[in-house]
Amino acid sequence: xxxxxxxxxxxxxxxxxxxxxxxxxxxxxxxFLAENRKKLGVIELPxxxxxxxxxxxxREIPTAKYKIRCHxxxxxxxxxxFDNSVQRSQPAVSPxxxxxxxxxxALQLLSTGSKWNY
Length: 118
Hints:
By secondary structure, this protein is an alpha+beta fold. The chain has two helices and seven strands; from the N terminus they run H-E-E-E-E-E-E-H-E. A three-stranded antiparallel beta sheet has the order 1-2-7, with no helix packed on it. A two-stranded antiparallel ribbon has the order 3-6. It has a two-stranded antiparallel ribbon with strand order 4-5.
């Protein structure tokens, strides 16, 4: 087998594995969202954003123009932690409108000092 043919076969194999994994991830994600929707205290917005208020803050609510400083704990649907600013002892600092879309929406709903799970 030539290197070119072997390379093509390897690319096809990797593509199939990635497609299979993508379908599996989508299925797991949809199952997680359906189960999460049923949990006590979870609020779902028309956009699909789901959140639960763990502690309500008592200060102002940031707008898109604000720069925020916050700790976060990122997990996958199977609870595997992929990022944790508390463990790094360094809160994230970013403009409210400089993060992913669902987080921009959530940040403009929670008051300063709040703790949410979303």
